[in-house]
Design goal:
- By secondary structure, the chain is of the alpha/beta class.
- It contains 26 helices and 22 strands.
- The strands form three sheets. It has an eight-stranded mixed β-sheet with strand order 7-14-13-9-10-11-12-8.
- β15, α14 and β16 form a beta-alpha-beta unit.
- α7 crosses α8, α13 packs across α24 and α23 crosses α25.
- It is elongated and about 90 Å long.
Length: 755
């Protein structure tokens, strides 16, 4: 068996010299294939590059007919080269022509060659092309030769990534790496954002590929692995949740993979072949990601995701960079792209420079989606592999209404979306004209429209939208973005500033709603089998009364001399409300003893999220000043669906008969008890769902600022009595799983109601 003269390290050094030579792209590529053929003792070496139209084109060859360069093309999946491109796996054959996928290209003159070895050119798991060597004899390529060619392929992939070969591709297609990409995801927050990619966890772009000293690189690799292991161990020993929101089970998985001998062996072998430590990690990471993209088993995909995340941490350790982008370096018109992130991480960036958000994970009812809507930030979730499809600084467009993302859009696509953004701005201007128009339906039913908020940055929207107040102020956001527990004084300052910003408009403050998926980074995490059903919200407040009392005291002090509304989240029984009410009374007495001014009026309510309260409606409406439906959690618990789980989150419709019947019970009992009933969940901000709520008898809705205009335009054209009669009639005959959405949509269409 022939051996490569000088081995892979000599080849890599020679390739580095060629990469530095002041020659044109085609000359450089021609020299590279000559060098590879000589080193691999091959009679043929060819490079096929994936074009933007998905076609593989022969860009350079040593051994085949040179006239075939830029003329021989094939589709992914066609022939042996196409097979390698579609599978992203190397292929070694002693007799290529006997393989069923062999496709003969007469212009190349390859019929005299039998032995064939091809490897994909991978970058971030994406196939950029194929590198092939061939021999006339029926020879078997050794594992070491396959490994050497894969290492060489990584260097070629980086050459393609520089864009130098772009000029060699057809103008109308370009090369695949830089081609425009259209991705469909799930709409999270309305709006159109045009800008440039900022990766929440920026990939390390490995520039130094070829090792000067293999032993030194092995030591660097081992040191970085040790640091990553130690950091994971420290997080687990502390028992809390890291700043980026990794839960304990994720960290346990990371720790397991950080000790996986197969993964570590492949990286060490890549270094031994002549790569730097970071290039070796990138090489193995790219192979894993390519397998992940072609994996249909969700469990295996998730495990490969874990390896990808771990490799990303390792790369950042090796180059000494932070895992997340520095907030101060955020450019204008930034579109944030991430695999996943928590609401606190998003809030950390600030709103002024952000134009959109794109996530690989996160559904429309996730908390990150709720915060994006609160910030008025166009957002799309569940966009497959988006973090691997983009590069830092790429042009990108987010269409939050259609759930679409345009990566590196062509000029005509960009112009079309710019026009769409202008049209949307004009529509917003039309909504702005409705700001001072009373929110009254055609048949004279007044409907109060309020905002959901959580930060001071939200409150200027009161003036912009004409909202009558804040129906839900999420106090936990202050806790989630802080590095430590906010003091009572800091809490009071926030609430005082919120009152000042709201002027004479009322604010309903929800007490701290943490737990479940909202764990504070500085609090001890509690390991639970079902955190959404566990120790959270009012349960934490009642078990740790000092925490709840401090917040109540801050609210009472901030509201001195003006009306105050407080509501408690996740109340499951009347007794929990009585206990919370007793804590409020205790704090009022404390203020009296110390001479503080009381609020001019105090109203206490509950968020109706737990289905058990549906069977205590009469009792709770008799003792609470108001009830506010948290439709997201109520629906989650009513149907036993995890709203963060993509497989089931969209399985049940909020306009289904069971949900509407539950909401109808609330509206009817609240009216009978003369207890104000509001809806502060997400459905109140969607015009069609809001139409149904008004028909059921809810005359107070709270929503994101961007939803005020569309909902007001809807209700001004609505006859509440008519839609109410339709819903009652349909619910009498609806089956258990029926949805009223089609009938309500037809009603809106025939009555000219904009939804």
């Amino acid at each position: 068996m022939p051996s490569a003269p000088g081995g892979p390290r000599l080849l890599l050094r020679r390739l580095r010299e060629i990469m530095a030579e002041p020659v044109g792209a085609q000359d450089r590529l021609d020299r590279i294939v000559i060098q590879i053929a000589a080193n691999m003792v091959a009679e043929v070496c060819s490079v096929y590059v994936m074009r933007g139209d998905g076609v593989l084109e022969l860009f350079a060859t040593e051994g085949l007919n040179r006239a075939a360069v830029h003329h021989t093309v094939m589709r992914a999946g066609e022939g042996l080269v196409g097979l390698i491109a579609s599978t992203a796996e190397p292929l070694a054959l002693s007799d290529a022509q006997s393989h069923p996928a062999f496709s003969y290209k007469p212009e190349t003159g390859e019929e005299i060659y039998h032995a064939f070895l091809g490897v994909p050119l991978l970058r971030a798991g994406n196939t950029l092309g194929v590198l092939v060597v061939q021999n006339r004899t029926f020879r078997v390529y050794a594992e070491e030769e396959i490994e050497a060619l894969q290492t060489t392929a990584m260097v070629l992939a980086e050459l393609i990534a520089t864009g130098e070969l772009q000029a060699l591709a057809p103008v109308e297609t370009g090369i695949a790496l830089r081609r425009p990409v259209h991705q469909k995801g799930t709409a999270l927050a309305d709006g159109v954002g045009l800008g440039h990619v900022i990766l929440h966890e920026p990939r390390v772009v490995v520039k130094n590929l070829i090792a000067e000293n293999v032993e030194s690189e092995l030591q660097r690799l081992e040191h970085a692995i040790g640091e990553v292991r130690a950091s994971i161990d420290r997080l687990l020993e502390r028992g809390d949740v890291a700043h980026h929101g990794e839960h304990r089970e994720v960290l346990e998985t990371f720790r397991m993979f950080a000790h996986d001998q197969g993964w570590l062996r492949r990286m060490r072998e890549a270094v031994t072949s002549g790569l730097t430590a970071e290039a070796a990690v990138e090489r193995v990471q790219s192979d894993n990601r390519a397998r992940m993209l072609r994996q249909t088993d969700p469990y295996l995909r998730e495990r490969l995701h874990d390896l990808d995340d771990l490799a990303n941490r390792l790369l950042h350790r090796l180059v000494g960079r932070d895992l997340v982008v520095e907030r101060g370096l955020l450019p204008e018109n930034a579109i944030l792209v991430a695999r996943s992130m928590g609401p606190a991480a998003l809030l950390d960036y600030g709103r002024s420079r952000l134009r959109g958000l794109v996530l690989e994970e996160g559904g429309p009812t996730s908390h990150i989606a709720i915060v994006a809507r609160a910030l008025g930030l166009p957002a799309v979730g569940e966009v497959a592999n988006v973090t691997s499809l983009v590069e830092q600084g790429d042009a990108i467009i987010v269409d939050g209404a259609a759930g679409e993302v345009q990566i590196r859009p062509s000029s005509d696509v960009e112009a079309a979306y710019a026009e769409k953004a202008r049209l949307r701005a004009r529509r917003q201007e039309q909504y702005l004209k409705l700001r001072d128009v009373p929110s009254v339906t055609k048949d004279g039913v007044p409907v109060t429209l309020q905002l959901n908020a959580g930060l001071l940055v939200d409150l200027p929207h009161l003036e912009d939208t004409g909202a009558t107040g804040v129906g839900l102020f999420r106090t936990e956001l202050q806790f989630m973005i802080a590095e430590r527990m906010p003091t009572a004084t800091e809490q009071q300052n926030l609430y005082s500033a919120a009152f000042a910003a709201a002027g004479d408009r009322p604010i309903t403050f929800r007490t701290l709603d943490i737990g479940g998926d909202k764990v504070l980074p500085y609090m001890q995490a509690v390991e639970e089998e079902n955190p959404a059903l566990g120790w959270r919200a009012i349960r934490i407040g009642l078990d740790r009364p000092g925490l709840l009392r401090a917040q109540i005291r801050a609210l009472l002090k901030a509201a001195a001399g003006r009306p105050l509304k407080i509501m408690f989240p996740m109340v499951a029984t009347c007794d929990e409300f009585f206990r919370a009410k007793a804590l409020v009374e205790r704090e009022r007495n404390h203020l009296s003893r110390h001479g503080h001014v009381h609020p001019s009026d105090l109203k206490l309510g509950v968020m109706l999220e737990v289905p058990s309260l549906l069977f205590q409606l009469k009792e709770i409406c008799a003792v609470a000043d108001f009830v506010s439906v948290g439709s997201n959690d109520l629906m989650q618990f009513l149907f036993a669906i995890d709203r963060e789980n993509r497989r089931v989150a969209d399985r049940f419709d909020p306009l289904s008969a069971p949900m509407l019947r539950a909401l109808s019970l609330v509206a009817e009992q609240a009216k009978a008890s003369n207890c104000l009933a509001t809806v502060c969940g997400e459905i109140g901000g969607r015009p069609l769902e809001a139409m149904a709520l008004i028909g059921l008898g809810f005359h107070s809705l709270s929503m994101s600022p961007a939803a005020i205009g569309p909902v007001k335009a809807m209700l001004l054209a609505l006859d509440a009595g008519e839609v109410g009669a339709l819903i009652r009639r349909e619910l009498e005959h609806a089956g258990g799983g029926d949805t009223l959405r089609p009938k309500l949509a037809r009603f809106a269409e025939t009555h000219g109601i904009p939804v």
